[in-house]
Amino acid sequence: MEKFADEATIEVSSGKGGNGCIAFRREKYIPKGGPSGGDGGRGGDIIFTVRRNLRTLAHLRYKHTFKAQNGHDGENWGRYGANGEDLVIPLPPGSIIREEETGELIRDFTKNQDDFVFLKGGNGGWGNIHFKSSVNQAPRKALPGKPGQTVKLKVELQIMADIGLVGFPNAGKSSLLDRFTNARPKIAAYPFTTKIPNLGVLTAGEKDIIIADIPGLIEGASGGAGLGIQFLKHISRTSALAFLIDLSDENYLTAFDILLKELGSFSERLPQKKRLLVGTKTDLPETEGRLAELSAKYPAEEIIGISVFSGDGLQELTNAFLRLTSAPQDETADEGGNEVEIEAENVENVFEGEEN
Q: Per the structure, how many domains does the chain have?
């Protein structure tokens, strides 16, 4: 998990074009042949590509300078110099590239994941074969290669998920992710167990629902308190939010108001997303009656009580997730009118490591 990185500042440079060559034919029976200097090769391009097996920007953490290969110089006998190799920089889905100094958006790879040629390499210089004329049969002139371009960039990663889990520390977000998927986040009975975002995929029928668990929020998170503020941006692209309320906590009736306020302070768009409330730990004796009290306080909200330990409410929650992430005609029932059963498989914790 220490490999996780969601921001990086890098400097990228395309390759310089190769120089043109000054040369003349010198053969046994042609002692004073004409010009034969070839052109220089083109410099390599800087290309960004999306790799789905990447989940973080950790590969950009320690290497901050990326330079494509220069073009090779032209040679005798009219031979062109070889073109410089392009440099392809892989990025995970959800990456954004900005100009580092101005913050200007250059490319959003959530909207367009095609390969992106960012900087073109410099053209190669002409060799002296281009400068022969009737009045100058032996030109001693060639052109240098054009320089490459250098730009400093800020690369950001915003996780792309369907459902974002929001809650205070120890509200049960990681336990729910673990039960629904095979993500295997770190779980323990103390606050801030989750230090980085975790993703898992819930397979319900024929639909995959990507669930994101971010570190727990605390009051004042939008102002920098706690860990969650660093990762709130990762739920900005989710289709819907699930607010997990720990029914065993004495502040269960005020938790939702505080969470909603913190999200609104970070971005006014977050409280406007589709959402539901999830009362957790219903298996504990002290939570009896608290789900009804929570429902009475928020009659306009959809509220589901669950117990990850006993499994109570998990099927209902799965169907709710399907409603939140599907078109109306594709909601919770199949053609026969039966509820879709949960199938938790083909899932990964995408931040545990990376395939390169």
A: 2
